[in-house]
Amino acid sequence: MKKSFFCLFVIIIGVAACSQFEKIRKSTDYQLKYRKAFEYYHAGDFVRSGQLFDDISPMYRSTNKADTVAYFQAMSYFKQKNFPAASYFFSEHFKNHRQSPFVEECEYLAAYCYFMQSPRAELDQTNTNTAIEAFQLFLIRYPESKFVADAEKYLAEMKDKLVDKSYLTARLYYNLGQYKASIIALNNSLSDYPETKYREELMYLLLRSSFLLAENSISSKKKERFQSTLDEYYSFVGEFPESQYVRDAQRMYDRADRFLKARGTDENEE
Length: 270
Description:
The protein is mainly α. It has helices at about 1-25, 30-40, 45-60, 65-80, 85-95, 105-115, 125-140, 150-175, 180-190, 200-215, 220-240, 245-270. The protein folds into 2 domains: about 25-175, Alpha Horseshoe (Serine Threonine Protein Phosphatase 5, Tetratricopeptide repeat); about 175-270, Serine Threonine Protein Phosphatase 5, Tetratricopeptide repeat, CATH 1.25.40.10. The radius of gyration is 30 Å and the shape is elongated.
């Protein structure tokens, strides 16, 4: 009985609070809305504070409170973890209020919001690239900022994710047996990220892709493609002579070398 009464009491209080909030939103008293927006914000009710800051933002746009309203509008969405909306409002803030005391933090948090929208490496990395650009620009503008260490950490994470993305894309073409596309993607990955942690594996897959492309080619293209296999072999073993893949690399070399020698003998006989 007591539990039911308590639940009913909570519902009544909730309905009353909603009714009061709707009255505030419908009000044309913008000073009241301004005051209540901060009350909701400091009480941790970021949904309602965000809605009120949205309502009053146009009215305060040309006043000396414009940057404060814009900052707490963005922060309300940030606290809700609504990162797409927060990144937009933070970006608008530092574009429109360059003299504000909040501008440095807003520029950092805009970059952080893009970072939080960055998906796993297999997916499209548009937000990752946007985050990288935003953090790089932030570090140029604010080299002494208290946010520098975090910005550098997140920037390194984003760059690592692009390395992973490049590796996974190249590996995918290899796994699908699309060896022409695999060779292009592997070379691009090595060119874009020469210091990649996947360098040994990528170079091995480049050798293997070249070998398998030659093996599955029509007769007229085999010679040229097996020659490319030998070139990839020399590059691979020259850089990784102790690699775990050396035995398989040697097998591919021997197969390509035998073919080329046999083709050379056939051509000489002709």
